[in-house]
Design goal:
single chain, alpha+beta, five-stranded mixed β-sheet, 8 helices, 40% helix, elongated, binds zinc ion
Length: 181
């Protein structure tokens, strides 16, 4: 991968021998591997058995999870926030696990729509809740830095499963809670 980054740098007309660029292929390769490290994670090892019995049926919300991913069309970042909610059916996830699930899928080449659904499906698989809701709001650098250069547009995607899909009042409660600052 280092050689391939060196080649790319030469292709744009740079001098690969220039002092500031000497270690760049190595660093870029390490960064690219890290940003795509989600391919080597599975739901099972991310959860690491951090699922607990709980007799609550109240909505669990984790909001404002920082999100960094790479768009699969341009290999440019999209950056934003992810909000997740679920309605437990006897089991809850360990506190940090929702964020870890978001990371596992964000650190892959993605489109925002698929990322949103993968997170929702993973929560569904992990604790079989009565419902799951995921909302992602993100800015795409491929839109901001190139092409149409729309600096302030935010893309919103959502995936609602179970009761969040069926019941408007449940969905509204979630949307109201994530919009409250
Ligand atoms: Zn893109």
């Amino acid at each position: 991968m280092e050689n391939q980054f060196a080649h790319l740098i030469q292709e744009i007309g740079e001098d690969i021998g220039r002092e500031g660029l000497v270690d760049t292929p190595k660093r870029a390769a390490a960064a690219f591997r890290f940003l795509n490290s989600g391919y080597h994670m599975t739901l099972e090892n991310v959860l690491n058995q951090a699922i607990f019995e709980a007799d609550t049926e109240d909505m669990v919300i984790v909001k404002d999870i920082e999100l960094y991913s790479l768009c699969e069309h341009h290999l440019l970042p999209f950056i934003g926030k992810c909000h997740v909610a679920y309605l437990p059916r006897g089991r809850v996830l360990g506190l940090s696990k929702v964020a870890r699930i978001v990371e596992m899928y964000a650190r892959r080449l993605q489109i925002q729509e698929r990322l949103t659904k993968q997170i929702a499906d993973a929560i569904q698989t992990a604790v079989d809740p009565v419902g799951v809701a995921v909302v992602i709001e993100a800015k795409h650098l491929c839109m901001m830095m190139r092409g149409v250069e729309k600096q302030n547009s935010v893309m919103m995607t959502s995936c609602m499963l179970g009761l969040f899909r069926k019941q408007i009042s449940t969905r509204s409660e979630f949307l109201e809670l994530i919009n409250r600052r």
